[in-house]
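Hi R.,

Here's the chain you asked about this morning:
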Amino acid sequence: MSQRFINWFKFASPASFYPLAGKAWPWFAALATAFCAAGLWISFFVAPTDFQQGEGYRIIFIHVPASWMSMFIYCVMAFWAAIGITFNTRLSGMMSSALAPTGALFAFLSLWTGALWGKPMWGAWWVWDARLTSELILFFLYIGYIALTAAIDDPRRADKAGAIVALVGVVNVPIIYFSVKWWNTLHQGASVSLTKAPTMATTMLWGMLLMALAFWMYSIAIALYRVRAIILERERHTTWVAELPEMQR
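And the predicted structure, written out as tokens:
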């Protein structure tokens, strides 16, 4: 048991994690492509028309999974930040840096698709609703993290500063999730819950879940691909990088 733990722990080293990430990211990219193709097909060609919102509701198949991922990725960043601060591992900061742009992308996609959905439903592109405002704060947290870590020349100091931002900002995630319950908002409540039966048709649910899986696989694939570039940049003066064959870089 302890031997297996040690074998897994060795991947905390950038030199050991680099080849593992290189082998794993194409598989996750392939899964993302497959799930996305199936999800889009069900979402736009199989799922029935909503009796209240018509065809315009189909944007939820992008909006909802993007919103989920924007919150989930920030939680993962906070997890890596806690690991980095506790154990002083170099890979933790690299993983947080690799995840941040993808999280910002999903937060922006959530806000943008929400505006496209809100205009015909609410009659406005934007309202200072609790859910929308807290999601906008999440987007700014991502941008702030990226800007702060890029502004500090020393990577270890940048990682620690970014870790503080990630850990402090993670309190915003439950605010986003529970905002529709804590305040009187225009935003509708959750259609999918772990404790209640879904309030949508089965085909709609499958389309949404497949798109969520696609976004999840994409996030893993692009984070692994990006962290390899970060590892090469930070470890470029080390012996193991100098000995890497050109095809493996």
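The radius of gyration is 20 Å.

Let me know if you need anything else.
M.
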